[in-house]
Amino acid sequence: MSDVYDLFEFKAPVSRGALLRTLVGLAEAPGTGTALAGKFLSDIGVDAFRAAEVDAPLPAEHPILRAARALPRAEAQSPAPAVPQAGPSEDRADFPFETAAAFTAAYRAGRATPSQVAEAVIAATQASDQATPPLRALLAQHADEVRQQAAASTARWQAGTPLGPLDGVPVAV
Fold it and tell me: What is the pTM of this model?
C-alpha cells in the first residue's frame, strides 16, 4: 500500500426536493433499494476501499500503552495526577439536571450514594416508559446490572477509593 493519499473525485448525485424524495423512495423499496445502494456505494469508492489490500494488520496495542510499558517501572506505576475539581454549574431553572460535578460532590459529602441515584434513574425510566405515549429514552436498561454496578460504586465511595470523578455518575450510552 502506498504512503501517498490518492484523492479522487467521485460521482455522487446532487439531489433535492422531488428528486431526493424519489431517490429515497427507491432506496427504501425492496428490490430497487439494494441495486441503488450498490450503485451509490460503488460511485463513491466504497467498493474500491473494500477491495484495497493492506501491507500489515492494524496494531493490536495502542501506541500510548506501548510507550507506557517502555517507562521505568516506578514511573509507569506512579499514581495518576489528581483530577481538578469542577465547580458547580450556574443554577438554571430552565435546565433542572444535575452535573457530573454535582453528583461527585454529593457522593463525597455523603448526601447521596450511587445506589440511591441508580434507584431514582431506574424509577424515572420506568415511569417515563409507562407514560402515554411512552418516552422510550433508553433502548435497553438492565436494572439488575445497574444496581450491581451502583452498589460497587457506593462501596468504593464509602471506602474513599472511587475509580475517578465519574464513578457512580449515571451515563446513558
Answer: 0.48
